[in-house]
Write a structure and sequence with these properties.
Elements (H helix, E strand, L loop, with lengths): L3 E10 L3 E6 L2 E6 L2 H10 L4 E10 L5 E6 L2 H10 L7 H10 L2 H9 L3 H4 L7 H15 L15 H11 L4 H11 L6 H18 L2
Parallel strand pairs: 3-5
Antiparallel strand pairs: 1-2, 1-4, 2-3, 4-5
């Protein structure tokens, strides 16, 4: 899995596509709309690094999505766990909102603001709101957080759902096995031990 790529921006094509030179290779990267103009104006032919996510499309070619901050990359991952959201729509959402803003919209039920994102009408925004509510929902039994404010529960939940487990069973087990001082790695290991029988049943 690619995580970070560093090189020189050699060309920018609206609305959000650029070419990054890394030695003999040129990478086509899609970036959020809100950073495209910044890159075009300040980083053309300059060295820059992106936190990237490669996506293999159905017609079997690779698309690369790039972000300036690792937390935006992680949010992109989380949004792609939602069945109603593909990479293009996830990128559109990140062009308008960071995670804090998205959580605020969900908490305050600001569906109309979601509907203003390209590719999302009001009806789709109403359905998307329910998915985002599940994604950003806080665990009710324990407050599970990492130092610096990163949400340990949500990171573990997203990772396990990406492996094919159901959201409800993941949440129940995470809340049951969590102990104070757990890191993401130790929490995932404990949860996977509990989920192993469920995985075997599905084979």
């Amino acid at each position: 899995m690619f995580y970070k790529i560093r090189g020189f921006v050699r060309a920018c094509y609206p609305p959000n596509r650029l070419f990054l030179e890394t030695g003999p290779l040129f990478w086509e990267i899609y970036v959020p709309l809100n950073i495209f103009e910044l890159i075009k104006e300040e980083y053309l032919n300059q060295r820059i690094e992106f936190y990237v996510v490669p996506i293999l499309r159905k017609n079997e070619f690779l698309e690369l999505y790039g972000f300036l901050k690792p937390e935006d990359r992680e949010l992109f991952f989380k949004l792609n766990t939602i069945s109603k959201i593909g990479p293009k729509l996830a990128l559109n959402l990140l062009s308008f909102f960071d995670q804090e803003r998205l959580q605020y919209l969900v908490r305050e039920r600001r569906v109309e603001e979601l509907s203003k994102v390209p590719g999302i009408g009001l009806k789709r925004a109403e359905k998307l709101f329910l998915e985002l509510k599940n994604l950003f929902g806080k665990p009710q039994k324990k407050a599970i957080t990492l130092r610096g404010g990163e949400n340990l529960f949500q990171d573990a939940r997203t990772s396990l759902i990406a492996l094919g487990f159901k959201a409800q069973e993941v949440e129940d087990i995470l809340l049951r096995v969590y102990e104070e001082g757990d890191t993401l790695e130790t929490l995932l290991k404990k949860a996977l031990r509990e989920l192993a029988p469920i995985l075997r049943e599905g084979l």
